[in-house]
Queue: 4 jobs
Job 1
Amino acid sequence: MGPLVPYIFSNEFSLVIALLSGIGFGFALEQAGFSSTKKLVGLFYGYDFTVLKVFFTAGVTAMIGVLLLSHFGFLDLNLIYVNPTFLWSALVGGAIMGLGFVIGGFCPGTSVCAAAIGKIDGLAFVFGSALGIIIFAEAYPFFETIYLAENWGPVLINETLGMSKLAFAFLLTAIAFIAFYFTHKIEDKVSKRQSNFSKKKIIVYISGISLAFITLVFITITPSKEEVIASKIQDPKIQQNIVFNEVDSDALAFEIANNYYKINVIDVRSPEEYEAYHLPMAINIPFDELGNRQWHKVFTQNLKTNYFYADDESLVRETYVWASYLGESENFILTEDTKIFKEKFSPVIKMPSGDSKSEMDTYIYRKDLTDKMNVLVEALKNLTAPVKVKEVKIKGGC
Amino acid sequence: MKSKAYMNPYLAGIILGLVLLGTIYITGRGLGASGAVKSVALSTITELAPEHTENTTYLKEYAENYDGPLKNWLVWEVIGVVIGAFFSGVLSNRVGLQLERGAKVSEITRIGTAILGGLLFGLGSQLGRGCTSGSALSGMAVMSFGGIITMMAIFGSAYAFAYFFRNLWLK
């Protein structure tokens, strides 16, 4: 599941990806004509809207692709970098950049492209942008107030507009196509040309437009991977058909005391309940957080057996179904709740007063395991705390 | 030999969009450009005048979590841009020393305005935390509010100022 860095590729290897992405980026920009200022500034004088066409097409393509990948569970949207919003610096900085665009005729990416094919003005622009960055760094105290004002964090535009991601995607795609149509009309007018579209071209354009919308409709009407799993684990029929591996407290306690290194004991209750009391060696993965990436490995490994428990039987069964869909780990559920476990295995349990041998045996068995588990918990205090997998927020930026 | 025509803008846009999508899928972040210039410019200063970096808030903060340009994602990406653009230029026969300028504009003026424009863009990209590619394009792909308003500010302001600089570009 994406993003692949740093989970699958290392950060160092990502530099190779950077080089490759850059090659694609530079190639597309240069092919589109972004190495020519005349083509770039055409946008502002109405004779050439290439920038708008390329820019919007790229944005819409990537946006729909991001939605599609996350729909199928290939990309975790919680982990991708979303530029934070600092309202005033975004607006003022943007305005300064716009002025620089009209005067210089480039933006940083396109100036690099221009310089790469030998344009001296492109090189001059790159030099200028280095100067501008240095000036900003030197004059930072002057800009600081506005630079840090109105920090809204990584808000999404659809949230700000109060709509779903998909609704915004539809809206932006529609705006893009309308803009393509009208800018084409404007180009015709300004450059006094009469454009004829061949039948083939018209078919290609209509297919492109349809493809974008059909993809969005597809994402809207089909359930996402998460929804499919969620509906499966709620489905009583599936729950009936699945063979649950079950253990009782005595068996689980034996495993904990003797095979602790081969098992994961997983508490799917809330953190508060976990704090109040939990089984020895248990880690806490609240039911709602099962899907979080940091736990992914727990469910997809096949080296250790997972034992789930909660005080609610249906909850623990849902977890079991969920885990069996997700991965290869061998899973068990504890059929008894934590109260029973606590009663059976606490240091204060009393020796039976009667003479029944079986009662005595049970007492000794449980006392033994309790002591063993206590020793383990003490010895492994630092190890049992769940290893916090740092959710590395990817740093982006430009 | 005449240079080849530019690619159909929609096709180029789709290619660019797929490159962007691939980058987001693999690395979780979008494309950028000004950050690479920043990395080179600021680390040059740090190398030449380490004391100065210590005394300048913005430089100091930048230098603290920084391993040098060769460990920087954006620097490698922009090296890629140079390679990709050069390759495209060679394919389409557009490589060669040249200076593109409006008919009324002298060469000196053009170089001067390119530097000035770059300067403004560089400064603005620091204030706005990203330029056209990092903020606007990548921001649009992930629906960042900040990225999209930066985009609107860039193009809005460019339209607002375009009239005053028409002599630079139009005949």
Job 2
Amino acid sequence: MTDSPHVLVVGGGSTGTGIARDLAMRGLDVTLVERGNLTHGTTGRMHGLLHSGGRYAVSDQASATECIEENRVLRDIAAHCVEMTGGLFVQKPDDPDDYFQEKLDGCRECGIPAEELTADEAREIEPYLAKDIERAIKVPDGAIDPFRLCVANAASAQEYGARIETHAEVIDVLVESGEVVGVEVKHDSGPGKRVHRTPGSTEKIHADYVVNASGAWAGQIGEMAGVEVAVRPSKGVMTIMNTRQVDTVVNRCRPKGDADIIVPHETTAILGTTDEEVDDPDDYPEEQWEVDLMIDTLSELVPILKEARTIRSFWGVRPLYEPPGTGTTDPTDITRDFFLLDHDDRDDLPGMTSIVGGKFTTYRMMAEKISDHVCEQFGIDATCRTADEPLPGSEDFSVLRDYMDEFGLRSPIARRSVQRLGSRADEVLKTAEPNPVVCDCEAVTRAEIQDAIEQSGSDLNAVRIRTRASMGNCQGGFCCHRMANELYPEYGEPTAREALDELFQERWKGERHALWGEQLSQAMLNYALHATTMNRDGDPAATDEAVDFAAFDGGVVGVEESESGRSSATAADGGTVGDGQRGER
Amino acid sequence: MPIREDVVVVGGGLAGSVAALAAAETGASVRLVSYKKSTLRFASGLVDVLGYPNSDGPVSNPYAALSSLPDDHPYSLVGEEAIRDGLSLFDEVTGDGYRGGHTDANALIPTYGGTVKPTARYPDAAAAGVASDARPMLVVGFRSLTEFDARLVSDHLSAAGVPFDVRGAELSFPKEFRADAKITRFAKALDADEEVRFAGRSVGAREALAETVKPRLKRAERVGFPSMLGDDRAAEVRADLESHLGADVFEIPMGPPSLPGLRLEDALFSALDDAGVRISSGNPVVDWVGDGGRIAAVHVDRNGARVPYHADEFVLATGGLVGKGIDSDRDGVREPIFDSYVPHSSDRYNWFDENAFGEHPFAKFGVVVDDEMRVLDGDGDRQFANLRAAGAVVGGADGAAEKSSSGISLATGVVAGRGAGASI
């Protein structure tokens, strides 16, 4: 079918899409395959922190320096994905003074703008900080939307000719004569955009070079090629609050520990995290104590968290890696640095390189380095331009225009849409059709949903990550089925129904970790709306057994309807009179 | 002068209203105390009795399925007669507004999710839509209403195997509202029959709507709309549309804000007025006083002041998790006014099922009662001599899965209200 690409990238997270974009911009023919949605793995399951580098300023100054450099780059090239909230490292009475000073010095040594604040000054920025905090360090931490960023990278790669294939799981790495020559993938519903209820197929994609950027799953891809990549997956929990209790990233200023960061993110705040090694990145326990730990420990920094409404929790798996023989036992001690494993050098298997370790904030730099490495294999001398060229959505986007009149949107909705879309706002929002709000919690309009469906097919989870629809307080209770309605008529009823079921279940999955108080009420309301009012759980269309309609009430028999003067013609047994006997009215 | 009544009912939803009416019928003086708007605005307005007992169904005869329910199910406690009594009280209250009383069989009513669901009583406005009627159907939606796509609903109904031809049409409402106008705005325009420009002339909204639909009618003998056909003058709006269209017109119940739910609330409150029930709304009951064995009064919080409402008998009808009659935090589940016993696992990860539509223990959370609806403590003894419960605050049934929520409210409401009145 298609020509063999030069490079096949495995993994649709930040690193994979970053590599695809970089290589495509340098003129290479690239195909990216991802087994789920873009961001399906680790990228879609992080707290959205754009590091200033402050976090690593004591323990790992090389990483800290990279972070602040990339922080500046991303503010520039991904403006529509970034909110520069600023960050605070806050000292509590039992947090060591020495460490506070080391942090301050470390930041300065790494070129991170850092300012010491008194407790009063810190509380002026964040009024909900605990009364007993002693002082704080202010750094340029920010929040970044990993979904939007990845989608923009993939879109840019596509603009440069790359093929982006989601829902394409690698089932084999093709090795011929001791060399990697491509991969075999299983398409969930045929190549291209995903369509529910269409049979899948497999495809062998031959490529001149394979980049394994599958993160925590790199070991599994390695195994298919017959090489060992000893990734150590480490899970961490994130708990989402329903409002922004803080508008600044708040970190606890102590050496290390679980539950030490709060990141304001869009309409929410995200509490993180734990760090615990797991055996299988696809199968690990998601436990109650982890959620409790987030709330209990972080409410020491921001006490109102104890009473606040939690909307869901999710877990991510870090692709930690350390060179063989280091023998670190505590995953928090494993370096966050990344490693480029050229399997030719390492395992005498030419044609493939794996990239492991690393962190989200420096994804672009990692992509640059591996792209340099790939270009070297091909003897191509092309310069990386990803630090200079804005991502789609962030080009020439300086002011939020008044979209209220222009697009007939109410101003807060227009503001949120335009923030999400950046420079694509014109293209997406200009529509002759009515553009009602589909998701009220996150103020997402039909035009945005339609734009996302155009990009990702009938996969409503992909629509969700592109638009934020169904990610607010109601967790989709009020909007999942509206999103499914938007699939019609391009996709038929069975497809829309299956897409709805899938999204509803996905939303439930994370919400069940927050089922107490307000969110339990919400869950019961959602359940009642979908089960009682819509009867989606007893849907006759979804069961094999036919309903005996004749056994049910066929309406009132023989009652004159005085207002219209007509009578119902339903038969007494609940059966009915056929069309032919009735004639036209 | 203290506020004193024979019976105080706490809660103003379906169960509380029915309990108050049943108590009033015994001759007792009754006061109904409600806090926020009732959850009827979230409810479809359909009155389900039992559609899926023990995950089987849909069953056509709810009464035939009662014996299969577990012993601690509210229906098993009150028995079939109480269900029938609850429904006949409901029929009295709603009069011509509701149908279904002519038969024991459930009706299958189209839902806005495109399915059909079994229900015992349905608003007159929904009557022409029953699924066991072979007349061809047209379903109409409006492009700006995101919660309802008529074409998808009609395809879904066909997939459910309904015994009639059904087509869907997405139209533009003849009057332009803002893109995200709510259902209530459409209803208001039809209630008032607002003048609109249509085909070059000025006509009422009802006629214009009918003319918009007419070209799509073809052979259809009944036309379904999302439930938006008027609020105060719904019957008149529907009759006007029917005479313009020459076809029956019906509404498909929708999610919140639900006009059928709000209309039902109006009907209940006017029946309460007629029955002489005093209503105090807008403030929450927060506490009680008494000697432990008996409740002497409940305390209503009015801007921080605690006002006692004295009575001989009390009925708790504050709703379940949605209505906040049952509350929870990370450590447990409780009934917040009387701290009545609510059975639940101490591990909150046992409160739910992994599957979105699985068997959720949280759906059954509620207080425990005996066959007279008296609230029991953890040992199975009466918590107070004079406290009964009704509706979703009573545990033991997953009304959403069974399609039994409204029937439980009616049956337990009648038993609790009548019992309270009879004890005076």
Job 3
Amino acid sequence: MRPNTTRARGAGAALAAGALLLTACGSDDATAEDGGDAEGPEATGNLTVWVDADRADVLQDAAADFTEDTGIDVELVQQDFADVRDQFVSQVPTGEGPDIAVGAHDWLGTLVTNGVVAPIEIGDKAEEFQDVALEAWSYEGNLYGLPYSIENIALLRNAELAPDAPESYAEMVAIGEDAEVDYPYLVGLDPTEADPYHLYPFQMSFDAPVFGTDSEGGYDAADLRIGEEGGVDFAEWLAEQGSEGLLNTNIDGDLARENFVDGNTPFLITGPWNVPAALDADIDLQVDPIPAAGDHAAQPFAGVQGFFLSAQSENVVAATTFLTEYIGSAEIQTALYEVGGRAPALTESFDAALADDEIVAGFGEVGAEAVPMPNIPEMGAVWEFWGTTQAAIIEGDGDPAELWERMADDIAGAID
Amino acid sequence: MTTTSPAPEKSPAAAEHPRGRRPPGRRHRQAERLAEAASVGWKLLVVKILILGALNAVAVYAALVLFASDQPLVGGAVVVAGILISWIYFRRGGLPAKYLLPGVAFLLIFQIFMVLYSGYVAFTNYGTGHNSDKDDAVHAIMLQNQERVPDSPTYSLAVAERFGELSFVVTDPAGDVFIGSAEQPLEQVDGAVVDAGRVVDVPGHDVLDFAEVLQRQGEITQLAVPFSEDPNAGMLRTQDAQSAYLYTSRYVYDAEADTMTNSDTGTVYADAGEGAFSSPQGEELMPGWRIHVGLDNFVRAATEPTIRGPLLSVTIWTFAFAFLSVATTFVLGLFLAIVFNDARMRSRKYYRLIMILPYAFPGFLSALVWAGMLNQEFGFVNNVIFGGAQIPWLTDALLAKVSILLVNLWLGFPYMFLVCTGALQAIPDELTEAAQMDGARPFQAFRMIKLPLLLVSLAPLLISAFAFNFNNLTLVYMLTGGGPRDLDAGINVGATDILITLVYKVAFVGADRDYGLASAFAIIIFLLVGTVSVIAFRQTKSLEELN
């Protein structure tokens, strides 16, 4: 009996002591948060900025200038870019989040729906930015972030195989076939998900955007346009390209890049991320607009990166000043372009970058005509059905019009 | 894990010892205590006092802060726990508790807390749009629905103070200077000194410099100065204390009635207990907030047709996948173990080494490599083994299931091979010899003698392998991503999705996350795995009687 009772007592005590450690952890958070509240007004302020590794060096300089000018310390916390959105959404409500974080504009819907991001007002400075960048960071009429770079896909051309830029899709295929290599042109696809992002320019050329826009120029979830006539035309076009072997879901992004680098195709539809590989292979590289397959312009999606402000920030004045005056300055925008290789969002830096590098200029010119990727949360429901349906159509699994219309119905159902 | 600790059995044995029968006298106990104290050594005692002192100091500080910030429950828990720790380590005896404490503490933090927390989430509506508490939601709605009046000018701003009250001093584009505070609508002032478009001095007020502005930035960004006596004309607000803009707010919060009113349409949104403000037509304002929803998530899983159908088919496939994975890997592993355990086999060492190789690669990497090798057109399997036949390994529903099982066989048999080899070598050869003397054929000897003995030691491993494969997210996600998608199902679910990948998709994929529902699924999975394991362990107990 005796040893048993001792053990039970010991275990009970240990459990309770464990509870102390647990609660001590909890209390740590509480003290940090409360301390922050209490000190807020007296402290000269301390900005916390979440930034990814690539952007960190440039921001380091901006932060040093800011501290020198205002006396406010800027703490840069490095985060993996892909993790920022989820971390931000879960940490801001606990009071542990940053004042400013780096991100992509298509996160906005999630951030706004979760109430973790605050609108910013940059006033007349808005005129200094590229339109597409500001549109992308606007949601329901408010601007939510300060954009710094625009990223989009374009047509990479191997000028040795195809000396001239194609004017239309048919011309591109004709040039590609005349080049007598393995593939007339390539775009990376996935066997089950295809790639709606890379195929979107073609879809746009059939006048089939995903959503219509409202009076403020933002995307309107209630106006689902993907299932309209243009969408069906696009679906039939996809099936045709699939049966002719021009679109092949077994060639993924890596294979497509490899074939382009090896000179097996004159054209590759891709983004700036594949440029270094092509340059390393000494390809005579040109960047052209994507040729239209339908009657309209082949506008790709633009992804705009920027910095946004937390809804729970205690340092709104300092944070806004840092955003507009420092991150929004030509010096920093140009520096961010130099490390990222993507077209800057500030027009002054954009023009400088275009003059400076013809590859960036190629992407930038396409990007200026691009449409921002929808930033409304309903877009999540679209991605879910879009790619799988495209893959099925390209592989010839059923009637393209029927598959496309069912997809549109499913999306409409998921949004409601 | 099932064996009981020997400690309770030991004490009766100790009691039978001749000297143990007589109850120890007082002097004897005193001597024991002295001996114990002496054996610890004073240096250790000092260290002990220092560590416990530091711990208690932290606890006292934490408790004070907690009580000061109105968290008496957590504060009380800290006090109780602090007392308990001191009591355990300062009193004599209770040695097990001293050793158990750190382990139990970590168990509580890293295991029990996680389990309880995800259990708790299953009973809330935590997910996209229901991310924080109600105050934050109100704050965010107000913030997001302030709209700058279209085409209104930018006012250059200075912040002035009188008797602690803040005012905005603004210069409009025409160069006229206005002043206003929270109570006092904007009115024109004369005699202000303007430098480079910004007011630097106003009679009767102190103009704040930038450092002072930063000190009071919370107040300044909260300040809303009415543009005129008419409240519909909007408010001047600032975000950077340099420029002010004219805003109108689309929503008005009424704290008394707890409603949000849209000032454009007049719609009243009330808190209907669903974790968001909703209009009479059922339209919800986002963001909402987290609330307890009781068993709602479980009810949804069982009744909502778009969830129930896929959940059922996914559950069936999960059981099939886990069972077949264990069965195939075990059979192949056992077969190879027997073959390589045969003394007639030459260079067994090298074969064994090769057999274990798949086990040495990280599982997710292997799965990715296999995904490439199974590519319909360019994959190694179709191109080299099947001579260019375009077999849709990963895009056909049935073949994808077969591929998953085959890849898992490749990944999993080395483990089974290892443990079977170990278990086989532990069975004495004499048993087989004896069986053969009795006239048993080799297969009979194996089936009647060796296999039951093997199962005694391997059954728990097979059960844990089942539980592991039941939750084998890595393989499924890296190989097929749950695909090929079922185009007929209304939700994002594919032919090879198992329960855990479904949970992952509900919780972390796409913009619409539902942590509550995912946690409810997780609890269902736990119950399923737990039930299967308990039944299986009960069944295998009968095997133990063989020993």
Job 4
Amino acid sequence: MRRDELRFFLLVVPALAYIAFFVVYPAFRAVYSSFVLPNGRFSLYYYRFLESVGLGEAVVDTIIVTVGALVVQLALALAVASLLTKEFKGKRAVSTIMITPMGVATVVAAVTFSFIFEVTGGYANSILHLFGLRGINWYANDAMSLLVVILSDAWKNTPIVALILLAGMTAIPQDLYYAAAVDGAGPIRRFFYVTLPNLREFIAIALIIRGVQEFNIFALPLILIGYHPPLLTTLTYELYTTSFPAVGPSLAAATILLVFILAFLVLILRVRGR
Amino acid sequence: MRASRALIYVAAGLLSALFLFPLYILILIAFQPPKYTLISTYPPLVPKELTLANLVAALSGTAFIDPFLKSVETATLVGLITLALAIPAGYGLSRLPSRLSYPVLVLILLTNIMPGVIIGIPIAVQFIRAGLYETVVGLALAQTLVTLPLATLILQGTFSAVPRDLEHQAMIDGANLFNRLRYVLLPNSAPGIAAAYLISWMFSWDEFTYAILLMPYHSTLPVTIYTDITRGNLLAGAAFSVVFTVPVIILTYGLQRYLKGQYISGGLKGAA
């Protein structure tokens, strides 16, 4: 490092020190504590304990929510972004409306969707009723409960995915579309053969940003479904509040969550690298 | 061509309705008597009777004021701590060659992948010992983790856009680093700095995980709304939610430019 480079680097040091102190150190501590009993002995006890309180279920549910939320958000965001690449009257208004959920706190989104999917007195059932259908118990089984979480999360987070994809779409040269059109490709084929391949980079970015957040999803499921069925985050929190100050099991659950996030990152980076 | 025009308008209408619908429901619940909302089996989708009673009942007394002030204090402090760390970091990174700035930036962005629960729980244990548990300062320090990466990214971009010739000129005039920051860089980067502050403020306003872990008892508004809802105090929850949401939506529209995908994806592009 040259001398002037060193001086600029020193300016970054406070931020790095902050991260070391508030992220790196606590994370290591959490992982370490999850393997050590209060008497200082190394043990897998907390992990074995987790299995008895529904770890397997929490892992499966977390993966379902993450995959489901990513699929719904990508599909919706592709629709929104495709729309916003077109020219039409009122486009500015639509793009402003589209970012509205970004300004709504996650907790508020969760509360609102809990009103919408209420079993009696819910607005989703009001709409069904409008079409002459009977109301549904939206929490009748685990699959339905997870679906409610996925849909609510999709509303809140589709805008950010749409903004990323829109940035990618506007970067695709229009010539590619003209060329494809001349070759006789209709809108659907142009979408699959021009838009999607050129969006790969941006889809990967959206998947990374959202995927990591999906694994960490916390306030929404806590408010909408509590701990039933459990996700890794809500399980961690429940164990924390019930076992405090002995937080061993909750840190073990948090460590497993961290492993999943890292595995997800590696997976996405490898798929994209090909 | 006409058919596809019509299709565009149908899609625009449908998607707009989808994005606005939940907020509409929230407003219905907040401004109607409960017999038309929470109590009815199939609550009507059009407003029947408007009232301010829910809002007045929820907002009078300290139930709202205390958490509201906590939220304002925390968010304000988060913005300040974030700027104190991100201004030097963003400036340093903007002047370093990319072979050095790039890995550092990725490292800073990677902090956002850490689960709040894995960091929040050990921090809570530490804070209890350090006397920072249940304090605004403690919560603000933790929430800065959420805001620092994006703020650094925005400020790096902002400072990169300030021509280096301006700085060189000031150096010839004998300005040291502090004076260059004060008279050249900061005034020329004011919009970016304001955006970084407001976005940090917004993220803190919204943050829930650290708030509930580090300040569970006398907390910020998101946690209060959560406790109201779990205790069956639904109308208060809805009313708080409306008041809580209005300022942030206004901010979001104002900051549209900075919430664009290019900014958010820019830093990750090479990394991804």
